[in-house]
Amino acid sequence: xLSYLPGRRSPVxxxxxxxRRMDGMKASEIRELLKLVDxxxxxxxxxxxxxxxxxxxxxxxAAYAKALRWPEAALQYGISEGYAPLRExxxxxxxxxxxxxxxDNILITAGSQQGLDFLAKAxxxxxxxxxxEYPTYLGACQAFSAYEPSYDRLRLDGGNRTPGSYLxxxxxxxxxxxxxxxxxxxxNPTGLSLGLPEREAALSLAxxxxxxxxxxxxxxxxxxxxxxxPSLQALDVAASGGLEASRVA
Length: 249
Description:
Helix content: 25-40%
Number of helices: 9
CATH class of the domain at 109-245: Alpha Beta
Distance between the termini: 39 Å
CATH superfamily of the domain at 109-245: Type I PLP-dependent aspartate aminotransferase-like (Major domain)
CATH topology of the domain at 109-245: Aspartate Aminotransferase, domain 2
Strand order of the largest sheet: 4-3-5-6
Radius of gyration: 21 Å
Number of strands: 6
Largest sheet: 4 strands, parallel
Shape: globular
């Protein structure tokens, strides 16, 4: 790869200007999967691609029109935490779901991938362990991998892994166990949901490891039958006494 530096007339090898972490960066598998969307003859089950027929286009169009009546609010720079009324609405939804929250607990991101990136940036140093189920959501691993973690398989099914074994493997990689990443409801790609004993086991393990639980609740509202189970965050808030004391993000 060739690039030009300011004030230089000849090209230089740009490889020497990249951070070391770029050595581990690869092309996005999700981006490759999305290329199939443009092929009308292909019905792909490889990604979580919704049916365009169910998109609420009319509702979205009306919402945009309403927002643009006040361009100073819709288009102007604002506080980095995000639009205050939206944060208040999210906090109210969380409270209804068993997690008492205020707008001060909410940060609006440009999609879930940015949220995962922020969490990894805040938590993970090179060599630190992120525990995930196998298989797990590919996009999360891509967000985490920029920060050079090690990965270990999270077992909540009564396997023979102990907290000490997770800590030992993380130490061998030069780090600590920093996070458990879970999709507890209708996980991508397995479609499985964690039962209440598994949810409690995950929280218990996180406490023993002194690690954060990253709960990816993207599909939580998609239940069509059966009883809802409390989120990991709701369970931990109930056990710890409040959101400020919870280890679930």
